[in-house]
Design a protein that fits this description.
139 residues; mainly alpha; 4 helices; 42% helix; 0% strand; flat
Length: 139
């Protein structure tokens, strides 16, 4: 059964009328801004780690337990003030933990955990750019 507002018959020679469609690489936008595995991609994707850790601390049931419906005040100003106090509390707790672990002298840099960066994937960037340049229509 077709969806509401959908035509019962596809227009001739449209994408919907064909069984298979072929697209050029230049016609399809990349799903990511940076090439997977490149240095720019790694820097961009690793911004998420400290952010998610901070939100995890903010929602921790044993500490701030910041959640929707957790306060019984109304107005955006009051809710915003309580949110700011919770965020300040998390920042102070994390700073205190940092000082306790590192003190005034910082430790030697520990090796990074997680998936190692694959430098070999960035070699394929120029091949992809050449293919995309060949697929573009001439000016």
């Amino acid at each position: 059964m077709p969806a509401l507002g959908a035509p019962a018959v596809a227009a001739p020679d449209s994408v919907c009328a064909r069984k298979y469609s072929t697209f050029q690489a230049a016609d399809l936008p990349l799903s990511q801004r940076e090439l997977y595995g490149s240095r720019k991609w790694f820097d961009s994707i690793n911004r998420r780690n400290p952010t998610e850790g901070f939100y995890g601390n903010l929602k921790d049931h044993a500490r701030e337990h910041f959640r929707r419906g957790g306060t019984r005040v109304m107005s955006i100003v009051k809710v915003g003030l309580i949110a700011a106090l919770n965020v300040a509390s998390v920042n102070l707790r994390m700073a205190t933990k940092w000082d306790a672990e590192h003190g005034s002298t910082h430790r030697v840099h520990r090796p990074r955990r997680g998936r190692p960066r694959n430098e070999q994937l960035s070699r394929h960037l120029e091949v992809f750019e050449r293919v995309a340049a060949l697929a573009r229509p001439p000016d």
